[in-house]
Specification:
It is a single chain. The protein is an alpha+beta fold and about 100 residues long. The chain folds into 2 domains: about 55 residues; about 45 residues, no CATH class. The protein is built from 2 helices and 6 strands. The strands form 2 sheets. A 4-stranded antiparallel beta sheet has the order 1-4-5-6. A hairpin with a 2-residue loop joins strand 5 and strand 6. It is elongated, with a radius of gyration of 19 Å. The model has no long low-confidence stretch (mean pLDDT about 85).
Length: about 100
C-alpha cells in the first residue's frame, strides 16, 4: 500500500483537499465537488495515510475535462465519440420538452 507522505499532517491533508478541489473546479466542466477521505493503515514499516477521492454521480449528461467530452456508463467514464455527445444532448433536450423544428 502506497500512501501520500504529505497527508500525514493536518496541514498536508488540507493542502491535498485544496489541490483536489482546484482540479475539479478548473479542469472539469461543469465543475464538481469531490469528497476526500483519509484512510490510515499500519504497515510493518509504520503508519501510511492513503487519500480516497470520491466523485459523486453527476447530473449532467456530458462532462468535459481539458475540453474533451466524457460520458459515464455504469462505473466507467470514458472519452465520448462525437455521435454520442450529439445523442446525449438530443435526448436531454427531448426529455426537457424540446420539440424538433422538423
Amino acid at each position: 500500500m502506497v500512501g501520500v507522505p504529505e497527508t500525514g499532517t493536518s496541514d498536508g491533508r488540507d493542502e491535498f483537499r485544496k489541490r483536489i478541489d482546484n482540479m475539479c473546479r478548473d479542469n472539469v466542466k461543469p465543475s464538481l465537488k469531490a469528497r476526500v477521505r483519509f484512510l490510515s493503515y499500519v504497515k510493518p514499516t509504520g503508519r501510511v495515510v492513503v487519500p480516497a477521492v470520491v466523485v459523486p454521480t453527476g447530473s449532467e449528461p456530458v462532462y468535459y475535462v481539458d475540453h474533451r467530452p466524457y460520458v459515464r456508463r455504469g462505473q466507467i467514464a470514458r472519452l465520448a465519440e462525437p455521435h454520442e455527445v450529439t445523442a446525449v444532448h438530443r435526448d436531454n433536450f427531448l426529455r426537457l420538452g424540446w420539440k424538433s423544428p422538423n
